[in-house]
């Protein structure tokens, strides 16, 4: 059976990308990272990818008049590399239905909050402002809404007295690095079944690892 080919979309330094690369290189994820794309030419994620011999390219949003033109170029790169699974690792743009339909059911995202609470771009700020005592992160399928797709995995972290956005983000990021590769592995191993909003995790195949 052919390996899944993963296309990773990033916007920044790519720390979640690094955790995925490590998992693939360890053999924990039986897939190939086929290409890394960033919407900023200066994104360090591109350097991380190239250091591991992974094709990488910048597709800069401001160079395109329309969002659909930008997304069409992203899709051209993904298709050219045979990508079967799209992973959003700190990609700070909302994808339109045009893009989502091209990879329906095959896009995973990591969000730094316990969805459905605090969707959007300012999750840590919003969580602290609300006064929650527990925050965390969520891996979910991407649908045509904003951080609204079916939930695959979540991890919780305590919110400490005096936390800032930065201190909370650092604590949550450790959990992101743990559960994002785990969720990708479940997908690649064929252990996810979606029934409406419910994502069921199937047991491993006989003789397989947990």
UniProtKB/TrEMBL annotation:
<keyword id="KW-0658">Purine biosynthesis</keyword>
<feature type="site" description="Raises pKa of active site His">
    <location>
        <position position="147"/>
    </location>
</feature>
<keyword id="KW-0808">Transferase</keyword>
<comment type="function">
    <text>Catalyzes the transfer of a formyl group from 10-formyltetrahydrofolate to 5-phospho-ribosyl-glycinamide (GAR), producing 5-phospho-ribosyl-N-formylglycinamide (FGAR) and tetrahydrofolate.</text>
</comment>
<dbReference type="InterPro" id="IPR036477">
    <property type="entry name" value="Formyl_transf_N_sf"/>
</dbReference>
<feature type="binding site">
    <location>
        <begin position="92"/>
        <end position="95"/>
    </location>
    <ligand>
        <name>(6R)-10-formyltetrahydrofolate</name>
    </ligand>
</feature>
<feature type="binding site">
    <location>
        <begin position="14"/>
        <end position="16"/>
    </location>
    <ligand>
        <name>N(1)-(5-phospho-beta-D-ribosyl)glycinamide</name>
    </ligand>
</feature>
<comment type="pathway">
    <text>Purine metabolism; IMP biosynthesis via de novo pathway; N(2)-formyl-N(1)-(5-phospho-D-ribosyl)glycinamide from N(1)-(5-phospho-D-ribosyl)glycinamide (10-formyl THF route): step 1/1.</text>
</comment>
<protein>
    <recommendedName>
        <fullName>Phosphoribosylglycinamide formyltransferase</fullName>
        <ecNumber>2.1.2.2</ecNumber>
    </recommendedName>
</protein>
<comment type="similarity">
    <text>Belongs to the GART family.</text>
</comment>
<feature type="binding site">
    <location>
        <position position="109"/>
    </location>
    <ligand>
        <name>(6R)-10-formyltetrahydrofolate</name>
    </ligand>
</feature>
<dbReference type="GO" id="GO:0004644">
    <property type="term" value="F:phosphoribosylglycinamide formyltransferase activity"/>
</dbReference>
<dbReference type="Pfam" id="PF00551">
    <property type="entry name" value="Formyl_trans_N"/>
</dbReference>
<dbReference type="InterPro" id="IPR004607">
    <property type="entry name" value="GART"/>
</dbReference>
<dbReference type="InterPro" id="IPR002376">
    <property type="entry name" value="Formyl_transf_N"/>
</dbReference>
<feature type="active site" description="Proton donor">
    <location>
        <position position="111"/>
    </location>
</feature>
<feature type="binding site">
    <location>
        <position position="67"/>
    </location>
    <ligand>
        <name>(6R)-10-formyltetrahydrofolate</name>
    </ligand>
</feature>
<feature type="domain" description="Formyl transferase N-terminal">
    <location>
        <begin position="5"/>
        <end position="184"/>
    </location>
</feature>
<dbReference type="GO" id="GO:0006189">
    <property type="term" value="P:'de novo' IMP biosynthetic process"/>
</dbReference>
<dbReference type="GO" id="GO:0005829">
    <property type="term" value="C:cytosol"/>
</dbReference>
């Amino acid at each position: 059976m052919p390996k899944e080919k993963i296309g990773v979309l990033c916007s920044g330094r790519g720390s979640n990308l690094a955790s995925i690369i490590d998992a693939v290189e360890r053999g924990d994820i039986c897939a190939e990272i086929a290409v890394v794309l960033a919407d900023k030419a200066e994104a360090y994620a591109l350097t991380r990818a190239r250091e591991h011999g992974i094709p990488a390219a910048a597709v800069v949003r401001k160079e395109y008049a329309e969002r659909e033109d930008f997304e069409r170029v992203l899709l051209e790169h993904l298709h050219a590399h045979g990508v079967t699974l799209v992973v959003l690792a700190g990609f700070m743009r909302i994808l339109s239905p045009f893009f989502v339909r091209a990879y329906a059911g095959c896009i995973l995202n990591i969000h730094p909050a316990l969805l459905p609470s605090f969707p959007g771009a300012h999750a840590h700020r919003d969580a602290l402002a609300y006064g929650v005592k527990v925050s965390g992160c969520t891996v979910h399928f991407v649908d045509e809404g904003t951080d609204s797709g079916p939930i695959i995995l979540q991890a919780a972290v305590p919110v400490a007295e005096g936390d800032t956005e930065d201190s909370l983000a650092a604590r949550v990021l450790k959990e992101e690095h743990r559960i994002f590769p785990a969720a990708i592995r479940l997908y690649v191993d064929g252990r996810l079944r979606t029934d409406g909003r419910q994502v069921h995790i199937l047991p491993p195949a006989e003789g397989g690892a947990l």
